[in-house]
Amino acid sequence: MIDKMDQIFVLLQHWLVAFLPLSLQPVASVLLAVVAIVCVFPGLFALTTVFERKGLARIQNRIGPNRVGPFGLFQPVADGIKSLTKEDIVPSSANAPVHFLAPIVLVVAVFMGFAVLPMGRNMVLVDMDAGLLFYFAMGASTEVSVFMAGWSSRNKYSLLGAMRAVAQMISYEVVLLLSSVSVVMIAGSLSLTKIVAAQSGYTGYFPHWYIFTPWGLVGFIMYAIAATAETNRSPFDLPEGESELVAGYHTEYSGFKFALFFLGEYLAMFSISGLGTTLFLGGWSAPFSFFTFIPSWFWFFAKLMMSIFVFIWMRGTLPRLRQDQLMNFAWKFVLPLTLLNLMVTALWRFMGEGWARWGVCSAILIAAYILMGRVGMYKEHFGPRRYRYAE
Amino acid sequence: MSPVFYLVSAMTVAGALAAVLLKPLVHCALAVTVAFAGLAFLFLSLDAQFAGFAQILVYIGAVAILIVFAILLTKGSELPRDGVFSRSWLAGVVISAAVFAALGWAILRSAWTLPHETAVPAVTVHDIGVALVDRYVLPLEIVALLLTAATIGAVIVAMHEKEGVK
Question: Who's near B161: CB < 8 A, 6+ residues apart?
Answer without folding.
Answer: none
